[in-house]
Write a structure and sequence with these properties.
- The radius of gyration is 23 Å and the shape is globular.
- By secondary structure, the protein is an alpha+beta fold.
- Strands 6, 7, 8, 9, 10, 14, 15 and 16 form an eight-stranded mixed beta sheet that branches.
- The chain has helices at about 50-65, 70-75, 80-95, 100, 125-135, 140-155, 205-210, 230-245, 290, 300-310, 330-340, 340-360, 375-385, 390-395, 400-415, 440-455, 460-465, and strands at about 5-10, 35, 105-110, 120-125, 160-175, 180, 185-190, 195-200, 215-220, 220-225, 250, 255-260, 270-275, 280, 310-315, 325-330.
């Protein structure tokens, strides 16, 4: 494997004018340095290709894209979601987990604007669906149920392929007793950006979740912390019961429990990603700079509205410290609010959807497929919205230029081994995926190669042969 060394030059500034802002252009920071490869490898950030013609062709296709997406109603109220919620509560009661059989808040953590690009349903062969449903872990109950589903499919549809819904419907699950104000709890800092320990101050909450709490003595006082490990054990028991009851197959990820609903062959396989989350109705100090940093987007009013809603804590393992009491800070609700703002919902989101489609279809780095994730692409997209003027996103002729620009940002992130979290820039998203890996220069070369192909034939790359 060819090793690529990178040299870092002085930071660059964008020259677009800001909309509705009194600040000078130079006050808008570019979080990325201008990184160029040395002479040992040719990586061209500026191909010199005339992008006007290809961009106009891509623009002509733009109006056709809307019809390829799921309707807003279909995304927000997918088929059997109420049945899934009812099944979860019933399983919690059978498993004896009363804290989860009480009133629960189910919050969509993905907006319609974030739904998958192009058609939401396609036909896939059994091995592909099997991998999606089970991953590398096959459960006895689920395996038998899946085989019965395949058999029923061949009987009813008389086909060797299975219908698969591309969209995963994402939800956060929060018991109402764990909606906390700043008087109910304290967030204790850790050495890892983006992670905190949750200390309870409210005795009623501590009593309700006592079997998930850990008490430490500090001086003359006892400090009560909520353990994400114990909470996940409760959830494992509930989802195990839910799978036993059927017609669901459950796969546990690092944060989410993915439910495959195989109740109806004619409708196809539906997937729901459910993440347990503690709701905090205040804004964390570690993200305070997000409120005040210079930017073109979003507006101050939109920022204030997002901050007023708060954030969540999710039980993701801190792979850096390994501390079992650490919770990961999540801004999923804030991100949904951002994607629902008019600039993104009606104009900008097409860039991110195309990027997701391109990397899903053409990017291959099999050894470490999570290096470039859709979340990282969304992060770069949000940063681009902050730096580039409002009118740029309204002009469809800028579509290709914007997509290539975000790909350039990704190459720079790979070159510096740093993809800053959107709300907490001190948090490097790469640290939680592939720290200190030789795959960064390889991935950068592949992104540059993909960028060149997109610049030369954008319509074919996005839409296939046309």
């Amino acid at each position: 494997m060819c090793t690529v060394e990178w040299k870092v030059n002085e930071p660059t500034r964008h020259t677009d004018q800001k909309e509705n802002s009194d600040e000078d252009e130079d006050d808008i920071p570019n979080i990325y340095d201008n990184v160029e490869p040395d002479d040992c490898c040719e990586l061209d950030f500026h191909s010199g290709i005339d992008m006007l013609g290809p961009s106009l062709h891509l623009r002509d296709k733009y109006d056709d894209i809307e019809g390829m997406w799921a309707s807003s109603e279909q995304y927000r109220d997918p088929y059997t979601w109420n049945e899934v919620k009812t099944a979860f509560i019933r399983a919690a009661e059978v498993a004896g987990e009363t804290s989860f059989s009480e009133e629960l808040v189910w919050l969509p953590s993905g907006s319609y604007a974030e739904s998958s690009f192009f058609s939401i349903i396609y036909e896939a062969r059994e091995p592909e669906c099997r991998q999606k449903v089970f991953g590398n872990h096959y459960s006895g109950i689920g395996q038998r149920r899946f085989q019965e589903y395949v058999k029923e499919n061949k009987t009813k549809r008389n086909e060797s392929t299975l219908l698969w819904h591309v969209n995963d419907y994402d939800y956060m699950l929060t018991p109402k007793s764990l909606i906390l104000s700043d008087t109910d709890c304290v967030l204790r800092k850790t050495d890892t950006p983006g992670f905190v320990k949750l200390q309870l101050l409210n005795s009623d909450v501590a009593d309700t979740w006592g079997d998930c709490c850990f008490t430490q003595t500090s001086g003359q006082c006892d400090q009560v912390f909520v353990s994400p490990t114990q909470v996940k054990k409760k959830l494992e028991r509930i989802f195990s019961q839910m799978e036993k009851d059927g017609p669901y197959i459950v796969k546990q990820g690092s944060v989410a429990f993915q439910i495959a609903d195989i109740s109806d062959v004619s409708r196809g396989i539906l997937f729901y990603d459910i993440v347990f989350a503690i709701k905090c109705t205040f804004w964390p100090s570690m993200a305070s700079k997000w409120i005040t940093r210079p930017r073109k987007w979003p507006s101050k009013g939109d920022i204030e509205a997002i901050v007023a809603v708060g954030f969540h804590l999710v039980p993701k393992v801190n792979s850096v410290s390994g501390d079992p009491l650490d919770w990961r800070v999540s801004f999923s609700q804030a991100e949904v609010s951002l994607t629902n703002l008019p600039l993104v919902y009606h104009y900008g989101i097409i860039h991110w959807r195309i990027l997701k489609s391109l990397f899903s279809s053409y990017f291959q780095l099999e050894a470490h497929p999570k290096l470039i994730t859709s979340y990282n692409l969304k992060t770069l997209f949000f940063y681009a919205l902050e730096r580039v003027k409002h009118d740029h996103w309204l002009n469809k002729e800028h579509l290709l230029k914007s997509i290539l620009g975000i790909m350039d940002d990704l190459v720079i992130c790979l070159a510096t081994h740093n993809c800053p979290h959107y709300f907490i820039p001190e948090m490097n998203l790469f640290d939680y995926q592939i720290p200190h890996s030789d795959f960064y220069p390889l991935a950068a070369e592949q992104v540059v190669s993909l960028r060149k192909r997109v610049a030369e034939k954008p319509v074919e790359m996005v839409f296939g042969d046309v």
